[in-house]
């Protein structure tokens, strides 16, 4: 059909031109003969023969060109027939090769056209993949295990979440029975919530039953038969699996029960693929919030959506503890310096920091005003709806006022749920869980530091379809904000867009050695096969931007189908600080 269309389209005009050309020569011949009719018979005969000969030659040339054109068009028809089947394939693969520009995609009459800041056009090429491999060994039964592993987590909600995730992996490495982890009751937030108050413990145990045997507590019989209390130890930060096998396993076999304390970031970021996928199954599937937390979080999402179809969630992280930990200064004079110095005393090993140098290094969180300026410069309009996920903002309403002026449609959990929020108010971790849900469901998530909630949610949003996650390039933006009074708005906006290239949550930002696995879970992010993308474009299968229901991790055949397309970015990772106090600040 493609060939036939090509012939019809191309030969019809060509034949018309040839016929017109042929008629032109014949008319010319008749005119010559009529004008020369009074000439002698010999001359007329000569002219007649000559013109006849020329006409024949031209006819021959015309038909020769017709044949050549026909052959060329036949070849083009074959090419069009072939490319008709593979054009979309070529288009898809070309998307993978083209170095896309995050903000400017094509030229038009007025200059460069900005891309959609709400969603990456490349997100539809990826999906979350954390299914078990065909050779994955089943979980060791409780009686056959090497002992019981107790875990005491540390920090706020999301820091503890990393500890719980890694605890399951460590139990798998040790062939141990994991006891439901104990949450931190003695940190800065003084939250006495237990695991069962925040997470659905039954779901947690059942979902991971094929990976690790989990029990609520060490059996009474085992405890009675122990000569000594459980052995307590703290492992170094970022320990390799070999460390647990060589240092922890012998003690576990000898004592039967071992407790690991302050368990946060105690496992290397670089593990083999099966263990990394186990991390993803724990973090993105097994750790489900309790019904009360989940329902309230979803209510807030629905209330935001009723007001506006799309909204941004901003994790300001401008609380006193975070600012004190950063060592930065925000112009509050001696009062601010004293307050931050008092808070810093809780971290005994924190060095004295130069506030100006820390800002130049990009270690200082942006102020709420600076976050607002960045978003407006990126192209978010004044009528955009903002959900602000935060605890106590340093400076209170006065600090938030410039952000409210830039984005009047400004909401928090306290504004959206007044009476419904009261049962959760005494518990900082439960409040953080509500912010987590709304931030996860938002169309765009904006972080303001590289803390635990920022990392965990950035990784989850990549796994769930690369939903837009904006991370300020604080190192470059800080200098720009200091000089913003020296330039007009258009120049400032252009420079902000330039600064933010590579910090917008696009798939190509997942590069070897970049950050923690919890933030960049590259092992668990795969490229979709072309056939699925083609169906997605037709609206028959997956569509870009969907989250939980989009990706199935239960089908054991998924790995075989997607292995050839899997995006393997690289295994070597750069550790982000090995100081004992690193990451202990608030979520």
UniProtKB/TrEMBL annotation:
It holds the Pfam family O-FucT. Keywords: Carbohydrate metabolism, Fucose metabolism, Glycosyltransferase, Membrane, Transferase, Transmembrane, Transmembrane helix. GO terms for molecular function: glycosyltransferase activity. Residues 547-587 are annotated as: Disordered. The chain crosses the membrane at residues 63-87. The keyword Cell cycle does not apply. InterPro entries: FucosylTrfase_pln, GDP-Fuc_O-FucTrfase. Residues 578-587 have a biased composition (Acidic residues). GO terms for biological process: fucose metabolic process. Belongs to the glycosyltransferase GT106 family. This is O-fucosyltransferase family protein. It comes from Prunus armeniaca.
């Amino acid at each position: 059909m493609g060939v036939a269309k090509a012939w019809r389209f191309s030969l019809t005009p060509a034949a018309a031109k040839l016929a017109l050309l042929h008629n032109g020569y014949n008319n010319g011949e008749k005119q010559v003969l009529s004008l020369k009719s009074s000439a002698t018979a010999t001359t007329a005969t000569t002219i007649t023969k000559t013109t006849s000969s020329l006409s024949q030659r031209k006819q021959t040339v015309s038909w020769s060109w017709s044949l050549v054109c026909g052959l060329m068009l036949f070849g083009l028809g074959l090419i069009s027939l072939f490319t008709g089947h593979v054009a979309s394939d070529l288009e898809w693969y070309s998307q993978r090769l083209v170095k896309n520009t995050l903000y400017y995609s094509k030229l038009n009459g007025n200059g460069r056209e900005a891309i959609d800041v709400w969603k990456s056009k490349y997100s539809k090429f990826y999906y979350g993949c954390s299914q078990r491999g065909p050779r994955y060994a089943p979980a060791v039964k409780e009686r056959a295990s090497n002992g019981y592993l107790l875990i005491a987590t540390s920090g706020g909600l999301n820091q503890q979440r990393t500890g719980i995730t890694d605890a399951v992996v460590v139990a798998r490495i040790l062939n141990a029975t994991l006891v439901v982890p104990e949450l931190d009751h003695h940190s800065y937030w003084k939250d006495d919530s237990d695991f069962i108050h925040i997470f659905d413990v039954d779901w947690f145990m059942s979902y991971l039953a094929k990976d690790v045997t989990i029990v609520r507590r060490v059996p009474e019989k085992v405890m009675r038969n122990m000569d000594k209390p459980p052995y307590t130890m703290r492992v170094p930060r970022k320990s390799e699996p070999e460390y647990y096998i060589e240092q922890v396993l012998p003690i576990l076999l000898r004592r039967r029960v071992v407790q690991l304390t302050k368990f946060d970031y105690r496992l290397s970021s670089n593990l083999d693929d099966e263990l990394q996928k186990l991390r993803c199954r724990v973090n993105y599937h097994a750790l489900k919030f309790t019904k009360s937390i989940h329902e309230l979080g979803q209510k807030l999402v629905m209330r935001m959506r009723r007001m506006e179809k799309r909204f941004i969630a901003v994790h300001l992280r401008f609380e006193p503890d975070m600012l004190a930990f950063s060592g930065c200064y925000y112009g509050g004079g001696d009062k601010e310096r004293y307050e931050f110095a008092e808070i810093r005393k809780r971290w005994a090993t924190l060095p004295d920091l130069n506030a100006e140098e820390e800002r130049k290094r990009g270690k200082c969180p942006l102020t709420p005003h600076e976050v607002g300026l960045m978003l407006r410069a990126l192209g978010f309009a004044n009528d955009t709806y903002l959900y602000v996920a935060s605890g106590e903002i340093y400076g209170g309403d006065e600090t938030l006022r410039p952000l409210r002026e830039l984005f009047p449609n400004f909401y928090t959990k306290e504004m959206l749920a007044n009476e419904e929020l009261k049962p959760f108010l005494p518990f900082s971790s439960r409040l953080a869980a509500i912010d987590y849900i709304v931030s996860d469901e938002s169309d765009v998530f904006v972080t303001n530091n590289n803390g635990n909630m920022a990392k965990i949610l950035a990784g989850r949003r990549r796994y769930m379809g690369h939903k837009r996650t904006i991370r300020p390039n604080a190192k470059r933006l800080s200098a720009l904000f200091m000089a913003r009074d020296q330039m007009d708005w258009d120049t400032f906006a252009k420079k902000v867009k330039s600064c933010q290239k590579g910090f917008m949550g696009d798939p190509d930002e997942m590069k070897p050695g970049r950050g923690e696995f919890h933030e960049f879970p590259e092992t668990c992010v795969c490229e979709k096969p072309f056939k699925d993308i083609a169906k997605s474009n037709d609206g028959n299968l997956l569509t870009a931007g969907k989250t939980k229901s989009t990706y199935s991790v239960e089908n054991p055949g998924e790995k075989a189908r997607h292995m050839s397309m899997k995006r393997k970015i690289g295994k070597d990772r750069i550790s982000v600080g090995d100081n004992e106090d690193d990451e202990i600040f608030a979520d």
